Amino acid sequence: MNAESIAIVGAGVAGAAAAVRLAERGVAVTLYEAVHEPKPIGAGLLLQPTGQRVLAAMGLLDEALALGIRVDRLFGDTPSGRTVLDMSYRRFHPEAYGLGLQRGALMGLLWRRVRALGVPWACGAAVESFQQDGDGVTLQLAGGRTARHAALILANGSFSRLREGMRVRQSARLFPWGAVWTVLPAPAGFPQIELRQRFRSASQMLGLMPVGKAHAEDVERGINVFWSLPVASLDGWQERIGLQPLKQRMTDLFPEVEPLLAGLTEPVQLREARYADVHMARWHDGRVLAMGDCAHGMSPQLGQGANMALIDAHELSAEVGTGGTGGKDDWPEVFARYTRRRRAHLRFYEQASRGLTPMFQSDAVVAPWLRDRFFGWGGRLPYIHQQSIATLAGYKTGWLWGRLKL
Ligand SMILES: Cc1cc2nc3c(=O)[nH]c(=O)nc-3n(C[C@H](O)[C@H](O)[C@H](O)COP(=O)(O)OP(=O)(O)OC[C@H]3O[C@@H](n4cnc5c(N)ncnc54)[C@H](O)[C@@H]3O)c2cc1C
């Protein structure tokens, strides 16, 4: 491997997007991915206007639009018909929308671009540890191999152990709640323009999101189904709950889902998701940088994880080649500038995610009671609606003011 190149660990959204953005700026990068044959799998994503801007900068937005579905509105209510959420992107900007996309579709686009740019990509190459010194970083790979690079980007997800090798104050807490989810074919006439949620307190939540096609040649469009479960019930849910009783719980909460659930016939169709709340005092340590979920994993309630990963990659590339060191990047300096650039935006979303998640996924009683009484009412006030939708769109950098400039 080229010792002058930057190693990126993890070929998920963050790692693949960083490889693309850096390679486009002429930086030599090498991608390391633990999985032998990465397959484009994963939950449906709602890609926000900010993430869409990054895809546009990569020249990938048109293809993403052809695969995904424009989502104009988020609507959530209780079984008694009380509106909890009713947000329309158009009230943020007349041309704004969320893009419902299968994660596999997004990964397919990013990986194709990684290959087209000729980025060296080692699959089945799990990085086990690293050591940095004044000149570079040495990686230890599974199987005893080592590799030397000028700098290292950790983009290996919320549950990264490598992050602990960074001399940065950090914490990673498994959320007590996770989810099962799947993508099912949309039955004829099934609504496909809004993200629909139904809540009973914070202990039951069903989310339906149109996510379009996984591949250009597919005919069927999919609906992502998300069912919230405590982690304690998630382990072995097939035996503890079983598929039919689980489907019954879903239809009891939201009877309109029945025709869609006809496509859910086997427990293996439902995938389990666990997430961690990751906090780091800063995201750089000398020649090592953490990005994506590895740096700021959060619950999916705000729909920001993949979005943030794309913005991280874009903002890092904006710091490359600006230091004026004779064409050679001073990586510790580039990474420190990246931390300064990203701080306000990432801190806002970490706080918002931490504050909102217990209102949607928990055993709490008071928080969802307040949610049911005040969210729908507050959302009818123009200022609150504007702030809520700006938050969802991924633009906010502070509670009172501050907008991300992309
Ligand atoms: C149910 C659910 C719904 C979601 N909905 C949304 C949404 O609507 N909008 C949104 O923006 N986000 C959403 N997200 C979040 C989003 O999926 C994640 O934030 C995003 O995929 C994180 O990307 P990443 O690249 O940081 O990490 P990952 O996707 O976790 O990728 C990490 C990669 O690193 C590799 N790896 C791990 N360890 C090593 C190692 N030691 N060596 C080499 N490789 C390694 C892994 O194999 C993997 O490929 C959702 C998440 C879930 C679970």
UniProtKB/TrEMBL annotation:
Sorted alphabetically, which InterPro entries does this protein's record hold?
FAD-bd, FAD-dep_Monooxygenase_BioMet, FAD/NAD-bd_sf
| FAD-binding domain residues | 6-345
Q: Does the keyword Transcription regulation apply?
A: no
One family from Pfam that matches here is FAD_binding_3
**Keywords for this protein:** Monooxygenase, Oxidoreductase
What name goes with this protein? FAD-dependent oxidoreductase
Its ancestry begins with: Bacteria, Pseudomonadati, Pseudomonadota, Betaproteobacteria, Burkholderiales
